[in-house]
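Q: What changes when zinc ion is included in the input?
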Amino acid sequence: MASQGVDVLMLSVGADLPYFCGYEAMPLERLTMLVVPRDGEATLVVPRLEASRVRERPDVFELRPWDETDDPIDIVSRLAGGAAVAAVGDHMWSRFLVDLMGAMPHAAWRRGSDVTAPIRSVKSSEEIERLRAAAAAVDRIAGRLQRGEIDLVGRTEAEVSAELGRQIVTEGHDRVNFAIVAAGANAASPHHEPGSRMIAADEVVLCDFGGTMVGDDGVGYCSDITRCVYTGEPPAEFCEMYDVLFDAQAAGVAAAAVGTPAEDVDRAARSIIAAAGYGQYFVHRTGHGIGTEEHEDPYIVEGNDEALAAGNAFSVEPGIYVPGRWGARLEDIVAASAAGPDPLNRADHDLAVVA
Ligand code: ZN
Ligand code: ZN
Ligand code: ZN
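A: The predicted holo structure follows.
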């Protein structure tokens, strides 16, 4: 906060709050806010009826419940104590921010992520191990998918998505964040919404799924993996495209060393896809950071020249999408470490042929 020139940090709904105090705010019209003055003690302001859900941490914050007839904006602005520069959580509802701006008319406003993103994006070794455990859980599901142990042909994308979701929970996650299942031409849409489309023989099935594993401290860590399988012998043309994707993804992982600018990881993957003539079909950045949120800093994208630091964790997920025809993506979570790129996902990277 001192280096960012921020006097008070205020966190409400969103991943920052559990990260810093182990409590996740319900997205309610009743205000929950952690108020952190730069030179003072932190206070967690919560509706009285939620207070019993808070794991008290007197070493971290003081608890300040408010009653139905109290004015929580007044409580928060008093705790902020005339701050000249206030940073508010990126996901705070605008109704609270608008009220706070009224109660603190002289404050300048900043995004909370100016303070929190640099902290959250550098994981401790304990956090990396929690991401590794979440990655291992989705790897087990990917393995079953690749061995043909999850029925595909004759089921709808939505049915397979629901099954992946159940397995995400069975494998130890507390929440399912997404389970994309895209068959045939639908695989050309990177964020396809699984629907009533029946999966047939002899087509690609792209599966991208992940969830959140919450620890005893109330902080959750995310998984995110993409694998493709083919329901029959893939045509040579698809195999050629997949081989390019395989090489591009491996090159991206290999480039993910400490000190490398994030955009160079993107370039490493993209240049291989472009050189093979598929450049126009790779329509998104190569990756995103991951931690307590499924998308967070650092972003692996052209224009981000920030050097990777030990403890950064992010996806490397190039894709090739040929509209109306087919598509493929290959995604691992990778941690940058002093010993080199540390891929957390270990599921097989080949295009599995399933019956
Ligand atoms: Zn995505
Ligand atoms: Zn994904
Ligand atoms: Zn991802």
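Observations recorded in class: The two ends are 56 Å apart (CA to CA).
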